[in-house]
Amino acid sequence: MGLPLTPEFSGGAPLRPQSRMDIKEHLPIKEQPAVVILVLHEPLRKSLVDLLQENGFAPRVAANPQEVIRLLRKKKCATVFVDYEALKMYHPGTCAKFKVACQYCRIILLCDKSQESHRKIIRDAMEIGIYACLLPPYEDWEILSMVSYYPRRRSL
Q1: pTM for the whole thing?
Q2: 70, 72, 61, 86: which is closest to 34 by C-alpha?
Q3: Domain holding 123: CATH number?
Q4: What's the total number of domains in the chain?
Q5: Are 99 and 108 in contact (CB under 8 A)?
Q6: Domain range holding 144?
């Protein structure tokens, strides 16, 4: 596993490796954004936690949407990973509650659009305004890019 990747904004240059110190200078706030995982598929959840911890992040695993909301309260920025199984069990509308709890919450849906049953969940979640939908196989750089870069915002 390499270093986290972030986009360059100089003419659309490709992603480049970046150290944790570089990431911190892009954050709009003093505290690190929260990273919360609501993934019911255990091998995927374990893989996410391991990858994020190896790269200096402190992900929190939530057992249900209420715990996600509790972890997001009083946070200015957060990234929440949610899998298809969680949205199927708790309903895609749950994502809207995450955005109420944390204004600058990025919701990342992990699913497989080749599965017919996943397509409706993806559509419903996109209508709610999720940040991204990642499709398998999940590459390390894709996961890390979802948590690594937060542009500066003066309003925060």
Answers
A1: 0.76
A2: 72
A3: 3.40.50.2300
A4: 1
A5: no
A6: 26-148
Report if residue 17 sits inside a domain.
no
Q: Tokens at residue 153, please?
A: 């915002």
Q: Is the pLDDT of residue 25 over 80?
A: no
Question: Is 52 contained in some domain?
Answer: yes
Stretch 68-96: mean pLDDT? 92
One-letter-per-residue 3-state SS of the chain: CCCCEECCCCCCCCCEECCHHHHHHHCCCCCCCEEEEECCCHHHHHHHHHHHHHCCCCCEECCCHHHHHHHHCCCCEEEEEEEHHHHHHHCCCHHHHHHHHCCEEEEEEECCCCCHHHHHHHHHHHHHCCCEEECCCCCHHHHHHHHHCCCCCCCC
CA distance 79 to 107: 6
Q: Any idea which of 24-33, 103-112, 131-140 has the lowest mean pLDDT?
A: 24-33
Count of residues for the chain?
A: 156
Q: Look at residue 63 and tell me if it is in a domain.
A: yes
Residue 4 lies in a domain: no
